[in-house]
Design goal:
Layout: H1 3-32, H2 37-40, H3 54-66, H4 88-120, H5 128-150, H6 158-166, H7 169-176, H8 182-195, H9 201-205, H10 207-226
Helix pairs in contact: 1-4, 1-5, 4-5, 4-6, 4-10, 5-10, 6-7
């Protein structure tokens, strides 16, 4: 089995779980805070097909991977109507935070599973140990990256909704106007990362906190394994 196929067999399930639970968490939070829009549109399902965006989930990451660029993508956003929230200003902040929060919860579960597996490991079949260890470590990394990347204060990322809710209303109204440029900013980020790989835009901004947080989860796994 080639290394590329092995990586795909690890990467694809990890990405699906991380992205689907991220999106559904937004819908669950919105429902709890008074907005049943996602439930009405049957978007609280864990069925990955309901969350696939043909362009963002398939076309864009596939094309980027084919041409050797940084692989970015997105799922179909879970619909949230802020006007139906009990407290729209605070509610949107909490709904936005639910996605990254879910990814950090998944990373925690991954670290616990990794620690328990390492602590109880006796004599697994050849190759199984490496596959499980690699898969769980990749699962932790993907969830940490998705959580912190989505907290960037750039529309349409979750961090922009959190920042908007924290700003004074007059400033929040001006900041909200950036939403119209959200997709252009996202595309510009992808293009800049691809065109100037030596600049390390992602590595220098999100990379250090991702590595630090990932290290904390790996320390948790090691502590559980040694308990």
């Amino acid at each position: 089995m080639s290394e590329t196929l092995q990586l795909a067999l690890l990467l694809i399930p990890c990405l699906i779980i991380a992205i689907v639970f991220h999106e559904v968490a937004h819908g669950w939070a919105a429902l709890a805070l008074g907005d049943p829009t996602a439930k009405e549109q049957r978007r609280l399902s864990l069925n990955p097909i309901r969350h696939v965006d043909p362009i963002g989930t398939l076309l864009v990451p596939g094309a980027l991977a084919l041409f050797g660029g940084p692989v970015f993508g997105w799922a179909k956003p879970v619909p949230v109507n802020f006007r139906r929230l009990d407290n729209p200003r605070v509610g949107m902040m909490l709904v936005a935070a639910a996605g990254p929060g879910m990814n950090l919860l998944l990373a925690t579960l991954g670290a616990v599973a990794l620690g328990l597996y390492a602590g109880t490991l006796v004599a697994p079949p050849a190759g199984v140990s490496e596959y499980v260890f690699g898969g769980l470590q990749l699962f932790i990394l993907i969830n940490v990256f998705l959580a912190l990347f989505n907290l960037l204060p750039i529309p349409p990322f979750d961090g922009s909704h959190i920042v908007e809710g924290m700003l004074p209303r007059s400033m929040a109204a001006q900041y909200a106007k950036l939403r119209n440029l959200g997709m252009l900013l996202f595309i510009a980020l992808i293009a800049a990362t691809w065109a100037f790989p030596e600049a390390g835009l992602i590595e220098k901004t999100v990379g250090p906190p991702v590595e630090w947080v990932r290290g904390q989860f790996m320390a948790l796994a090691a502590a559980i394994a040694g308990a």
